[in-house]
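sry for the spam today, last one i promise. struct tokens for design, 364 residues
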């Protein structure tokens, strides 16, 4: 029997070192163009060539050419596409389900926890004006301008109500943001039509619709996946609904925000400021208006989850295990398209690619 083939699309530089479990299992690892720092990678023709006869795909985020039906069909025996990240917006989920292919992702706490912490840091940095104060001192100035931050929490003795933070998406990231901000004494709103009512109560947030969150919030922080429903949900009309003093934070997916509308809203004073970690096109176009807005924007190169002791490392381990489990003919954890499981089991269950090579994954 030939060695199982794994195609790594958009691999980070360290994926080979962390792919030791694949090598130890006698898998053939074919590497696409690294795209962690410049997430473009290969295009369709090159991807199809490298993916030919692959039994699994594994990778981060691919912006040059999403993993579409054409690419999947290039690998006739493809069992699984394993993302080392949380997001799957670069995978044609419908095509994978139609073709009987599992898609898994890696919602590790190291990833979503880092995103939540990064969002909170952006909120505090912008509201407390730490960049402006730091620059003032470094420019040998001392209280020459009236730079004042925002006091976040309510104060009972003065009747100060504190600020309102609107969380769009109360999944892992959004709920962690709620946990982190609750001790500050702010009013927390959350918008998520797919979350049960009990969860809002558990995290101490008020359930509101999107329009109400936009209208009442001093800060809107986005924690939603990118779907047809959420694409450009924050657009020109949304900015018109927000307070002129409001701050937008996006650490989710770039396509959730209409960037041209965002630039216009900041230039026209429709909102006060924005903190952005995820962009519609990455890396950011050097001619983007976002780069010329000074303190009105706090920008990060889609690395808010990349922290010492966390980052994508745990996600790579999860993806490796998912691949090896699928190669054993078993359904792995964290399947994003569970509707495919019955058909997948008909095709692959009990059919181990390691039958003649020795088992690679401990039985569950």
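last one done:
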């Amino acid at each position: 029997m030939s060695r199982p083939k794994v195609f790594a699309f958009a691999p980070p530089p360290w994926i080979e070192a962390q792919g030791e479990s694949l090598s130890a299992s006698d898998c053939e690892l074919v590497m696409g163009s690294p795209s962690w720092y410049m997430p473009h990678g290969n295009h369709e023709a090159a991807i199809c060539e490298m993916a030919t006869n692959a039994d699994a795909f594994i990778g981060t985020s691919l912006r040059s050419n999403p993993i579409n039906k054409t690419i999947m069909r290039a690998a006739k025996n493809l069992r699984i596409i394993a993302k080392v990240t949380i997001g799957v917006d670069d995978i044609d989920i419908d095509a994978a389900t139609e073709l009987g292919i599992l898609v898994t992702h890696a919602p590790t706490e190291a990833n979503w926890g880092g995103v939540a912490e990064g969002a909170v840091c952006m909120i505090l940095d912008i509201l407390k004006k730490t960049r402006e104060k730091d620059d003032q001192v470094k420019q040998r100035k001392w209280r020459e301008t009236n730079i004042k931050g925002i006091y976040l929490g309510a104060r009972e003795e003065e009747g100060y109500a504190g600020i309102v933070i609107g969380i769009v998406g109360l999944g892992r990231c959004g709920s962690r943001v709620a946990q982190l901000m609750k001790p500050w004494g702010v009013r927390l709103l959350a918008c998520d039509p797919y979350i049960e009512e009990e969860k809002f109560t558990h995290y101490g947030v008020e359930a509101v619709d999107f329009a109400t969150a936009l209208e009442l919030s001093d800060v809107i922080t986005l924690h939603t996946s990118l779907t047809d429903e959420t694409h450009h949900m924050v657009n020109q009309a949304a900015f018109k609904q927000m307070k002129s003093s409001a701050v937008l934070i996006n650490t989710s997916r770039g396509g959730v925000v209409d960037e041209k509308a965002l630039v216009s809203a900041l230039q026209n004073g429709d909102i006060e400021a924005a903190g952005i970690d995820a962009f519609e096109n990455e890396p950011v176009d050097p001619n983007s208006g976002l780069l010329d807005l000074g303190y009105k924007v706090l920008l990060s190169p889609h690395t808010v989850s990349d922290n010492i002791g966390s980052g994508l490392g745990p996600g790579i381990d999860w993806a490796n295990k998912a691949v090896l489990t699928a190669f054993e003919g078993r359904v792995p954890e964290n399947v994003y398209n569970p509707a495919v499981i019955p058909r997948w089991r008909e095709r692959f269950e009990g059919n181990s690619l390691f039958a003649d090579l020795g088992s690679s994954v401990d039985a569950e």
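The mean pLDDT is 90. ok im logging off now
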